[in-house]
């Protein structure tokens, strides 16, 4: 099933306006995404759409960089609360799935740029906190009947330290193997972002096809967008791009279009590419 992220449309900060545009365009399957301003979530009840929830949704009132591995007690507490709020909202709007980002060894001030290494801790310490946080969220999700999945991080050139990834958890092949050892598939799956995979595999020098194969039986949902293989650009798909070539493997689970800064016509063209690639 093809979903469209609310992050796809140009000027997406007001999620209600985005949903109104989607409803007009008969886009029925929608992932509530990560780029919106705070609003009253009761307004979602006006829409007869099929929702799934991702990351920074519902949007917090005050700025938060979600980090389930944070060593800052306030950031960690707020991150866990956001996950719980998302799971509660899943129940209210009949979303069967909540997906969240893997953690960091620092608390970034902003995403999509070089992270400050101030207060960076060893991966082992961050991992311990992340596992404790996710286990708590697993229990909470189970009690509410909601499936959850983690999205592996994207590693771009500006966040490399001596050509190594010291800042982001769960990004490469070995870390996905570690994820599988730590967590049971029935408890938490993977949200496989094919755009992330293309970029991270370039900078960390691993086989992106092997990464997909490794994630295959643990993947609960997919994000798809195009890029130049070096930056996470969220560009439009083409019929022949690598990301599109992998979609047939996932035809029985939610595939979310996460191309950005598009009008409705371009979103629909991208949807068509996804739909045709899963036949």
Notable characteristics:
alpha/beta, 13% strand, 279 residues, 8 strands
| Broad shape | globular
Number of beta strands: 8
Oligomerization category of the chains in this entry = single chain
The description of the largest β-sheet is: 8 strands, parallel, barrel
Task: Please state how the strands of the largest beta sheet are arranged side by side.
Answer: 1-2-3-4-5-6-7-8
- SS summary, helix count: 8
Distance between the termini: 11 Å
- Strand proportion: 5-15%
Q: Supply the helix-strand structural class.
A: alpha/beta
As a whole number of angstroms, the C-alpha radius of gyration is 18 Å
The whole-number mean of residue pLDDT values reads 96
Unreliable runs: none
The percentage helix is 25-40%
Topology order in helix (H) and strand (E) letters:
EHEEHEHEHEHHEHEH
What do these coordinates show?
It is globular and about 50 Å long. The mean pLDDT is 96. By secondary structure, it is of the alpha/beta class. The N and C termini lie close together (11 Å). The chain has helices at residues 15-24, 73-93, 123-144, 173-182, 194-204, 208-215, 242-245, 264-277, and strands at residues 2-5, 29-32, 50-54, 97-101, 147-151, 189-193, 219-224, 255-257.
């Amino acid at each position: 099933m093809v979903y469209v992220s609310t992050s796809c449309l140009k000027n997406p900060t007001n999620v209600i306006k985005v949903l109104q545009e989607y409803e007009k365009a008969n886009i029925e399957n929608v992932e509530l995404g990560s780029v919106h301003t705070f609003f009253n979530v009761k307004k979602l009840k006006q829409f007869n759409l099929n929702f799934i929830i991702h990351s920074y949704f519902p949007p917090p009132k005050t700025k938060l960089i979600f980090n389930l591995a944070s060593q800052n007690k306030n950031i960690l507490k707020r991150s866990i609360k956001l996950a719980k709020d998302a799971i509660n909202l899943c129940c209210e709007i009949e979303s069967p799935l909540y997906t969240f980002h893997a953690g960091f060894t620092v608390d970034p001030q902003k995403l999509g740029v070089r992270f400050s290494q101030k207060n960076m801790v060893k991966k082992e310490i961050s991992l311990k906190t992340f596992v404790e946080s996710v286990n708590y969220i697993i229990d909470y999700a189970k009690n509410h009947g909601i499936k959850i999945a983690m999205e592996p991080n994207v590693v771009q050139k500006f966040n490399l330290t001596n050509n190594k990834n010291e800042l982001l958890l769960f990004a490469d092949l070995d870390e996905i193997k570690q994820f599988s050892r730590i967590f049971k598939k029935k408890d938490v799956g993977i949200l496989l972002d094919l755009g992330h995979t293309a970029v991270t595999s370039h900078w960390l020098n691993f086989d992106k096809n092997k990464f997909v194969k490794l994630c295959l039986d643990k993947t609960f949902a997919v994000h798809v967008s195009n890029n130049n293989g070096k930056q996470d650009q969220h560009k439009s798909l083409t019929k022949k791009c690598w990301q599109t070539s992998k979609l047939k493997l996932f035809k029985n689970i939610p595939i979310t279009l996460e191309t950005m800064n598009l009008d409705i016509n371009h979103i629909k063209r991208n949807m068509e590419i996804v739909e045709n690639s899963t036949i």
